[in-house]
Each structure stands twice: as C-alpha cells, then as structure tokens.
Design a protein that fits this description.
216 residues; alpha/beta; Nucleotidyltransferase, domain 5; 2 domains; five-stranded mixed β-sheet; four-stranded mixed β-sheet; 6 helices; 9 strands
Length: 216
C-alpha cells in the first residue's frame, strides 16, 4: 500500500513515497530546506519521488500530510497540495501532527521544538515517543517542561536559551515517522479526514481595516 507523504510545516519541503502494507518502508524521499520556496519546490518533489519509486499517482492508496503546527504560508502549500491530489485521485487523506515526525522513536522525555519565527517555537513533549504535552507555541525562555533533552530545528536555534542538551538529528519531521503515525488508518481503509491546519496563532498577514481619514 503506497502512500504519498507531504510536510511543509518547517523550512524543510518534504515529499516521500512509503509502503505501509506491513511495517513502514520509505521507497523514495526528497527533503529540500528552503523556507521561502515551498510553493516552487513541492510539486517537483512529488514528481521526483514518484519517479524514483517507480510509481504513478494511480498507485497511491492515500496521502499522509503533516498538519503543523507551522507558519501559515508554508503549511498551507502542503495541505492544499494534499487536498488537491486526494480529490483528483479519489483517495483518502490522513493528517498527522508534524511534531510527531520528530518525536516518534525518541526515548525518555524529550522536548520537540521547531522554529515558529517571531523568536518563538512550536513545541511538544514526548515520553518514549508518545506525545504527552502540546502542541503549543511559546518563547523559548517561557517554556517550563521536565525533559531530558531536546530535538528539532527550533531547539537547535535556541539551545542557549533552553539550557538543555540538544540532539543534532532529527532536525525536521521524518517522512518515515509521519507515515508510521498514519499507517494503521491506511491499512484499515479508515475514512479520509479533513486536513485541519494547526496554526496555533493568527497569520502575519491580515486583511487591512477600514482606512481612517487623515484629517478630521
């Protein structure tokens, strides 16, 4: 059972093909780190991993998408692509918290943190790979959690503020971990889900209000 895995919740533009028939095996993966080019990079990445896996769109059983948390613009690119493909192919979509793509497989109590911009991080706490707190968004200095260490791009950026040991890897969500989070639903042929983005805060861009007169 082949699934397309997409995640654009971080600067890493991720596309992969995974076989989840028994266990999870990633057949092809492309991860390009560029926080300003999600829209330009994702479609070619999808085409490339399909070619590398020797598969076509009609071979896909589902799309697994990281739903964030993540910045508004980048996250939207991945989710719009996922929805468009599932509608065109008539296959289900399954959403996964993108932080789970970092926390799955960790041992002990681990803080997962990705860069939320504005000098903040998106965060969650995992105990032996299971999320037990979060997701949330906060300034690193305001985080008060009981953990052994931290992982993720946000943790690396603010390691001095967090005051925790930080693993170099994983830095961005793993396609294998994201696929594993959805594998049971795919195998059971569970109904597809609405891909609701975890923005956790309002987007930077807002609709301008009514103009006020310069003079009264």
């Amino acid at each position: 059972m082949l699934v397309l895995v997409l995640d654009t919740s971080t600067p890493a533009v991720t596309a992969a093909i995974a076989d989840v028939a028994s266990g999870v095996s990633v057949l092809a993966s492309r991860v390009t780190v560029d926080g300003r080019a999600h829209g330009e990079l994702l479609a070619p990445a999808v085409s490339a991993v399909l070619d590398q896996a020797g598969a076509g769109p009609s071979d896909l059983a589902a799309v697994v998408a990281g739903v964030g948390p993540g910045p508004f613009t980048g996250l939207r690119v991945g989710l719009v692509t996922a929805v468009a493909m599932t509608q065109a192919l008539g296959i289900p979509a399954y959403g996964v918290c993108s932080l789970d793509g970092l926390g799955r497989g960790t041992s002990g109590r681990v803080l997962v943190a990705t860069d939320a911009r504005r000098k903040e991080v998106y965060w969650a706490v995992y105990a032996d790979g299971t999320r037990v707190e979060g997701p949330g968004v906060a300034k690193p200095a305001d985080l008060s959690v009981s953990v052994d260490r931290a992982v993720g791009d946000g943790a690396l950026r603010y390691a001095d503020v967090l005051g925790l040991p930080v693993d170099e890897e994983p830095r961005y969500p793993s396609p294998a971990a994201l696929a594993a989070r959805a594998a049971r639903r795919v195998r059971m042929k569970a109904p597809g889900e609405a891909l609701t983005p975890l923005y956790l805060r309002r987007p930077d861009a807002v609709i301008p209000g009514e103009r006020k007169p310069a003079l009264r």
